[in-house]
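ok trying this again, last paste got cut off
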Amino acid sequence: MLSFPLEQVNLFCLSKQHLTTWSLDADVRQVARDITYLQAPSAITPFLSLWARMRRFSPQALMRELYQERQLVKAKCMRGDIVILPVYLAGPAIVATREQCHGNDLARTYHIMARMTQKARGETNTFEVSDAELEELRARIVRILSHECLTIEQLKKRLATHVNVSYIVYALCDASILIRGPTVRWDNSKHHYTAWENWLPGVTLDTSPDEARAILIKAYIRSYEPVCLEDVIWWTGFTKQDTSKVIKDLGADLTEIRIDCFEGRHLISKDGLNRLKSVKYLDEPVVNLLPSQDNYVVAYRRRSRHSVRDIYPRIHDRAGNVLPVILIDGQVQGVWDIVDNRVQYTLFEKTDASTAYEVNQKARSLEQFLRDNL
């Protein structure tokens, strides 16, 4: 069985992720396809992920693909995360992960969201809402949004209710009855909402769960190879049994390799293996500034793929989310933040002058991007 050093694997993955200087010329649609999805835990995250992966990225380019061309769609999928997907993958992804997103039971989803919000805000009371009242509101919301596209505020005025309408709308989005439509600004998460079938009439949710899981796992392996079984389970949220069955069925298209310093075997496509073999080391460092929860950092169960254990507390917040990080040759070497409209960063170790210069240049470039677009 072939074995490869982690440095070579990282460079291969950086290229596939459009994070090397020679892979920055794709458009938004191509990048989204190549990396399968964009993490969207906040309004700004997917835009910064694309800024890191494109030479001349404009926020309007993503807005256009989402809300004019409608070739990308924002939905809750893997592990219950909000992500942006190519439209051709949206149906299978939603079907395959439906149980993870509480999408089949409005009352259950509503009360889960209410409890989570109460806990986050330290509240002790909320309006009690009966299942019958929720069902009545659900029907009214669906009826209104079947021919209109409204914000939560606009919808609540129309309904004239004391109930937190946002919970119901979010639950209906989880169930793919409604969809998150246009926002007023690219850095704002205040969406308009409308009916899924009106927004994406050609996208159906009739793929069988088995087929949907196979499509999603195949897409993940294509984008993030080489991966181990635990990585696939982590990313998809599927059971070990379901994941192993799909991988077994894909057996003829995959081969196994080892990564130095890691136990176990990693899966890679035969085409991917040929490309991995051809990777050449660079004389200059590959430097990236990635936003919180970026794909490259959260797509693997083994975080040691890109960071040593000693720095884990420095790159995660209290909830376990990955902070905005600095990558040097595919390894996390620092963190950054925006303070008073300036990108401030901390490197964990002293670097050579060339690398330090590249990090500073990336920080100044990100500042300029934000100045130009905010």
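PB: full thing came through this time. The radius of gyration is 22 Å.
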